[in-house]
Design brief:
alpha/beta, 4-stranded mixed β-sheet, 3-stranded parallel β-sheet
């Protein structure tokens, strides 16, 4: 990762087609744009690639989550369940829509633990957001089955797993809605940008209107329609330049994943020699998009000892137990209820605290994260660098 490593003539050609028309706005201006609708085409192709009927492009993966929550009718007074190992955007979107995030444990898939999910469902639960962290599938079939029994919709946060599959079915296509991020460090990127996919035409129509100030897209996606509005919305539109880059990157996605898999296999072979090392549980090894390589030691002390060797060799791994972006106990602004709103919203409503988070609330996750080490897997990695990391892993094997 990420996709900017393979920017080339394909992206330039797509971008120049937009610049030649002079139309950066995704809607309208049919005469000037000469039939070129990059965002519309990107939506159609990405949805088809992912195994869904409809796609709605937006400005970011964070916005994709908010749009998905909005069209499901989620708002104040509701709870939305997600996991304690995810990027902050997942729960930021929940809070921004007015709902309260509820966090589950992870298991050794490094994703949502279905057993803990069952315990967290209440009569206030309005949506469940499992996250396919680091390019690999959550136990999404089990999660959807649990959600269906309770009549709760599932939104798959697939921000880090574009192109990944479970038994041949694209991640993001199992739930009612699937969200994706195309930011600057994703395997495929549009710089900033996101997508929501679904098989539900009504939800797609609502997304289309909500992300464009509520405009009635009677002729969607090419025009804005008759200006009849059924509900308020906001501006979350992707522009044509992003759609152009997305088309070029999507055409390269399979090759990018294939290359990452080759690099990941080399890293895994090297790490296999470390005494006590095990690997993240993969439900479908072939379906992994190989954006990251994760392995686990028997305990936190041994994980830190291994990483000390790796760091000394200039090849330190990511230790997510100390990561401030992706791990529940490190989200000091969430735990402290910190906000710019003088009223204290969204943590406080009408003078009363809505929710208080305990940093020690997820002990199973803490145990797993404490012994987990992770490497990002670049698309372009020199043989020299790959050999350096593998040599460092082999040295760690003899040092612990």
């Amino acid at each position: 990762m990420p996709g900017f490593e393979v920017f080339g003539e394909e992206e330039k050609r797509e971008i120049m087609e937009v610049l030649d028309t002079g139309v950066l706005f995704r809607y309208e201006f049919p005469e000037q744009r000469k039939g070129i609708y990059k965002v519309r085409t990107f939506e159609e192709k990405f949805a088809a690639y992912s195994g869904a009927k409809y796609g709605q492009a937006v400005t970011s993966g964070t916005v994709a989550l908010k749009v998905a929550l909005a069209v499901l009718g989620v708002g104040p007074g509701d709870e939305v369940i997600t996991q304690g190992f995810t990027f902050v955007a997942t729960w930021e979107a929940i809070l921004d829509i007015g709902a309260v995030p509820v966090f589950t444990e992870i298991d050794e898939t490094l994703n949502m633990d279905p057993a803990d999910l069952e315990k967290k469902i209440t009569d206030k639960t309005r949506a469940i957001i499992p996250v396919h962290m680091m390019g690999s599938a959550a136990r999404i079939e089990e999660i959807v089955a649990i959600a269906d029994r309770h009549g709760i919709p599932v939104i798959e946060d697939t921000a880090q797993a574009a192109g990944a599959k479970l038994n041949g079915k694209g991640l993001g296509s199992f739930g009612r809605l699937g969200t994706f991020s195309f930011d600057a460090v994703k395997t495929m990127t549009t710089g900033e940008g996101g997508m929501v996919i679904t098989d539900d035409e009504e939800l797609w129509r609502k997304m289309s209107e909500y992300h464009d100030h509520g405009h009635d897209h009677a002729q969607n996606p090419g025009g804005r329609g008759g200006e009849g509005r059924s509900f308020i919305g906001f501006n979350y539109r992707m522009m044509e330049l992003q759609g152009a880059i997305g088309l070029a990157q999507l055409a390269k996605l399979d090759l990018m994943i294939e290359t990452q898999k080759l690099h990941k296999t080399r890293l895994k072979e090297a790490a296999a020699g470390i005494p006590g090392a095990t690997f993240r549980t993969q439900l479908d090894e072939e379906g992994d998009n190989a954006t990251f390589f994760a392995f686990l030691m028997p305990d936190a002390t041994k994980a830190q000892a291994v990483n000390a060797v790796l760091k000394a060799e200039g090849c330190g791994a990511i230790y997510f137990a100390d990561n401030t972006w992706h791990y529940y106990p490190k989200w000091e602004h969430l735990l402290g209820g910190k906000t710019l709103a003088e009223s204290g919203w969204p943590f406080v409503s009408h003078g009363k605290r809505r929710v208080v988070y305990d940093k020690d609330a997820l002990p199973q996750s803490a145990e797993i994260m404490g012994r987990c080490l992770v490497f990002q897997v670049p698309i372009k990695m020199s043989e020299e660098r790959l050999q350096e990391i593998c040599a460092a892993l082999e040295k760690a094997a003899s040092a612990v």
